[in-house]
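Duplicate of #3305? Posting structure anyway:
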C-alpha cells in the first residue's frame, strides 16, 4: 500500500512539473505571433502612407535639396561659428593668470561670467541681425550652447582645483606644495572631445579603427539624407496645409497632430541615431576618446525624469555636476534643484529654436517646463500600478506623439503669421 502511494505521488509530481513547463513554454510563445502581426501591420500602414504621399504630392526632392540659393546669406553665421574659439582662448588666459596669482578670485569669477555670457550673446546677435536659414541658425546656436557649457565646466573645475590646492597647501602638511596644471593642450582637446565635463585627462583608446570609422561615416550620410527626405516629402506638406492648432476646429487640429506624429517620430529617431550613436562615436574614434557612454536605454524609460537621465548622457552629467550637486551643497532642496535644472534646460531649448525663428513665443520653454508636472504624473502612475508599461506609454504619448508635432505646428504658424504681417 505504501509502495503504491509513493508511486502515485511520484506520478503526480511528474505531471505537475510537466504542466508547469507547458505553462511557461506557452507564456513564452503566446505573443510571438502577435509581435509578427504588429510588424506586418506597421510595414503595411507605412507603405500605404508612402504610396498615398507620392500619389498626392509627387516626388518633392529637387535639385535644391542639398544646396540653396539663400545659403550665401549664411556666411556671417559660418564666420561667427569659426570665431567661437576666441572665448575658450580668453578663458585659458584667465586661468593661466589665476594660477600665477596675478588676479584675485573675485576678478577671475567675474571675467569667466563675462566670457561665458559673451559666448552665447554673440551668436544670438549675429543670427538676429542676419537674414539666414533656420537650419543654419539652429546649428550655430547649438554650437554656441556647447561652447557655453564647456566654458562653465572649465571655469568651475579649475575653481575647484584652486580650492583643493589652497586647502592642501594650508593644511597640516604644508611642506607639500600641491599645484594643478593649466594646459592649453588639455583645453583644446576638451573643446573638441564629445564631452561637456572638463577634467585634466580622459581615458583613451589604443588606436583608430579605420574600417569601422568608414562604415559609421557612410551610415551618417545615409541617415542624414533620410531625415531630410522625410522632412521635405512628408512633414513640410502636412504643415503647410494645416491650420494653427489653437485656432479653428479641435478635431481638425487633433487630426493634424496625429498625422504629423509618425514622420516626426521617424525624424526624431533618425536624429538620435545620427547624432548620439554615429556622430559622437565618430568624433570619439578620431580623438581616441575612451568614454563612449553617450546614452542609455531611454526607450525603456518608466518615467519622464528617468528619460531625461538616460537619453543625453553628456548633458545629464553636466547638469548633475555643475547645477544639481552645487545646489544641494548650498542647502537647496532636491525638488528646487530639479526645477532649476529644468529651467536652465528650458532657457537653452528656447534659445536654440526661438532665435533662429526670430520669434519669442516661449513654446519650447513652456514645453520643457511642462516636463515637471509630467515627472510627477509618471512617478505617480509608476508607483500606483507597479507596471513599467504605464509610465513608458505615457512618456511616448506626451513626448513624441503629442508634444513634438504640436511644437512644430505652433512655431511654423507663428513664423508664417509674423512674416505675413511684416510683409
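Output from current build:
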Amino acid at each position: 500500500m505504501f509502495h503504491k502511494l509513493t508511486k502515485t505521488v511520484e506520478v503526480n509530481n511528474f505531471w505537475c512539473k510537466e504542466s508547469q513547463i507547458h505553462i511557461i513554454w506557452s507564456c513564452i510563445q503566446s505573443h510571438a505571433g502577435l509581435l509578427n502581426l504588429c510588424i506586418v501591420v506597421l510595414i503595411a500602414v507605412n507603405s500605404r502612407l508612402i504610396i498615398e504621399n507620392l500619389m498626392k504630392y509627387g516626388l518633392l526632392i529637387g535639385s535644391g535639396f542639398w544646396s540653396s540659393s539663400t545659403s550665401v546669406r549664411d556666411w556671417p553665421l559660418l564666420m561667427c561659428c569659426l570665431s567661437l574659439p576666441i572665448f575658450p582662448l580668453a578663458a585659458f588666459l584667465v586661468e593661466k593668470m589665476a594660477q600665477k596669482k596675478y588676479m584675485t578670485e573675485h576678478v577671475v569669477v567675474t571675467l569667466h561670467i563675462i566670457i561665458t555670457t559673451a559666448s552665447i550673446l554673440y551668436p544670438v546677435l549675429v543670427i538676429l541681425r542676419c537674414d539666414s536659414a533656420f537650419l543654419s541658425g539652429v546649428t550655430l546656436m547649438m554650437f554656441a550652447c556647447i561652447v557655453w557649457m564647456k566654458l562653465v565646466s572649465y571655469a568651475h573645475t579649475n575653481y575647484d582645483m584652486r580650492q583643493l590646492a589652497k586647502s592642501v597647501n594650508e593644511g597640516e602638511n604644508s611642506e607639500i606644495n600641491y599645484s594643478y596644471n593649466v594646459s592649453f593642450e588639455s583645453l583644446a582637446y576638451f573643446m573638441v572631445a564629445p564631452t561637456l565635463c572638463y577634467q585634466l585627462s580622459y581615458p583613451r583608446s589604443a588606436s583608430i579603427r579605420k574600417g569601422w570609422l568608414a562604415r559609421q561615416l557612410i551610415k551618417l550620410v545615409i541617415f542624414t539624407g533620410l531625415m531630410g527626405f522625410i522632412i521635405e516629402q512628408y512633414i513640410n506638406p502636412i504643415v503647410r496645409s494645416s491650420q494653427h492648432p489653437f485656432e479653428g476646429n479641435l478635431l481638425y487640429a487633433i487630426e493634424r497632430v496625429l498625422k504629423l506624429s509618425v514622420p516626426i517620430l521617424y525624424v526624431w529617431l533618425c536624429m538620435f541615431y545620427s547624432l548620439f550613436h554615429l556622430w559622437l562615436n565618430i568624433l570619439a574614434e578620431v580623438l581616441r576618446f575612451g568614454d563612449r557612454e553617450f546614452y542609455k536605454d531611454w526607450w525603456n524609460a518608466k518615467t519622464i525624469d528617468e528619460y531625461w537621465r538616460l537619453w543625453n548622457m553628456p548633458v545629464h552629467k553636466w547638469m548633475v555636476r555643475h547645477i544639481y550637486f552645487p545646489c544641494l551643497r548650498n542647502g537647496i532642496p532636491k525638488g528646487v534643484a530639479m526645477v532649476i535644472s529644468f529651467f536652465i534646460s528650458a532657457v537653452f531649448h528656447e534659445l536654440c529654436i526661438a532665435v533662429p525663428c526670430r520669434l519669442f513665443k516661449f513654446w519650447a520653454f513652456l514645453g520643457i517646463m511642462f516636463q515637471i508636472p509630467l515627472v510627477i504624473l509618471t512617478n505617480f502612475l509608476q508607483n500606483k500600478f507597479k507596471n513599467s508599461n504605464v509610465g513608458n506609454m505615457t512618456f511616448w504619448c506626451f513626448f513624441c506623439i503629442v508634444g513634438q508635432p504640436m511644437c512644430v505646428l505652433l512655431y511654423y504658424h507663428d513664423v508664417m503669421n509674423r512674416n505675413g504681417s511684416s510683409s
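Confirmed duplicate; merging threads. Residues 1-18, 20-29, 65-69 have pLDDT under 50 and may be disordered. DSSP finds 15 helices and no strands in the chain.
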